[in-house]
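Supplementary Text 2. Reproducibility record for the structural model of the 662-residue chain.

All settings were left at their defaults, and a single model was retained for analysis rather than an ensemble. We include the record here because the model underlies the residue-level annotations in Supplementary Table 4.
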Amino acid sequence: MKKSATKSKEFSSNKLILPLFFMLCTLLLDMVSFLYLGFYQTIPTRFLFNIGGAFIFAGIIYIMPGKKSALTFFYIFIVLQVVINILNANLYSVFGDLFSLDYFFLGAEGAAAIRWEFIDFVSIVINIGILGAIIFATVALFKWNKSTISLAEISTRVFALIFVLLFETCGVTIYVGETINSATSQSEKIEGNTSYLWDSFRFKVDAYKEFGYYGFYLKNVFDFFKFSNSLKPEEKKQLQKFVEDGKVEAVETEFSDDNLIVILCESHEWFAYDPILTPHVYDLMTKSDPSTINEYDATVFTNFYGHNKTNVSENIVLSGNMPKLNNLSSLVNAGNYSYAYTLPKLFEAAHEGEKVQTTYFHSFRRTFYHRDPNYLNGGLGFDKYISMENNSDKSKYFGDWISDADFISSFWEDFVPSDKETKFLTSFATISTHGPYTNSDNPRFKSYYEKYDAEFENYSAWVTEHEEELGYSLPKDQSFLSQLRRYKVGAMDFDNMIAKLFERLKETDHLNDTTVVMFADHNCYYDNLCYAMKGIAKDDYANIEAHHIPLMIYSHNCEPGEVNNFCNTYDIFPTLCQLYGFAYNKNLVQGFNMFEPEIENSFFASHMGGMFTEDFFSQNISDAQPLHLGLSDEDLLHFKEQAELYYSKQDKYEKIYLNNLT
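Retained model, structure tokens:
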């Protein structure tokens, strides 16, 4: 009998065309992102990362058994990239930052804070338009392309295997090769070090420019789920010695018996204060004469800067630093990190054997930014946490803020105990000046609105008269004036709170044994209000005046008046530790004592990107932009040395956190 001919099997050529089309689309989307973000380059420096990543994901699409499953994965990968492109465009326009997986830890906070004015609709239109074109092209492909590829049945699997191996081998080989290439460097410096950039992703924008979509995000996913770090014995020993060498013994100072109140002033700007609408704070920050309403004055730091999200600023002030590459909330919850040196713990240790009360207050939800339980004994070490949930008046939604003045008035015994034998540390994060500023209907602030409207002409005249020395002016745009009205109402509530606080300190005889620190976490970026007031373009990231915010310290031990040295958020913790003589760890802080000559080394680096002193601004150390004339090469070298020191210390902190070496 004659043998039958070998059977052949036909399959659609779209099975091969679809993954190749995916490669084209994903590379195109990355080019569009680069162009839209204004990177002045259309492809990443290490473009092979994108080629390798495109091959890997194209192989996944190819290996799917049917049309529906292949298209499902095709659209999942493409839509994910489109969403990330949109997120990057929006974050970059507001903060100069890019999306990474650590943003997931903002969770409900981030979602609640989003407002229409933050949204870059042009980026949405462009990316959705490209997505629509891709969808149309794939539909047309499967509708009009009916060509098939005919293979012998025995060859079908071989053919599929060949192409899967081709996609995945090419992709993995290229990607791993680029990974090894990026992670290999002989440079000891951080500046311009590709290996450091790959290992740390310290400079997000530079990392994205260098590695592109696949290089950046596949590495970000790997780092995100890395909760342990295998240290070599010698490196572990060196880090333990670094911690041990930083220990400072407690000493007696004129502040040692003082209580301490630390107030984070949400989104405060210098234009929050004036003698007409906020007379108590304004009087506190200026030298008084006998005719003014207060007999006490603060030390005002006129050259103070900050540019971090609220929780980051707060953690830096309460503990001296904060990890960036490792999520602190996860480490604490997993038991991977124990806070050893924080203000509440140091305060309690300084008063061992005495009656001590450490309380944390926040006028919004106790879970906001994962403060609960991270701020209690398992984390920062406060004995008690009082939030909006403890109050009868509660916010119904984000932006429906309660009155800070009314809030603390309900908990005076916890805020400032009347018992003179009790030593207390109180930390409070305010909320009433938080944006958005477009809502002017909160009935809780009715009396403030009435006062603002009644005094607006006087307030406007005062600003106009002093605008040259103030450094800001009232915006002429009516929408910004409306936003300013809402912002100033929150500032008036804060002013009322300060008046009540100092009255309480007097009533309990604590005025002369309590230090009050008031610092802003960041500018009032909501609704672009600070940029309108200061006349600064939102994308002018090098203009550090955008981050010039208030800091005041009241103490009977401090000489009232102005301190003009450049300082920043990192400097508050070491200043308080030295003023109080705490047994802190000098190697675990990034800042300097603001009252000592060492403050000339103050250096600020934001977790959102960018670093600066009063002389230079940079995104990556290498490209340092001078901020005024008369700077020398030695000044530039000093700036870069400060940056190298900051990041080398921060790298040590990350390993110390990850391995719980404190």
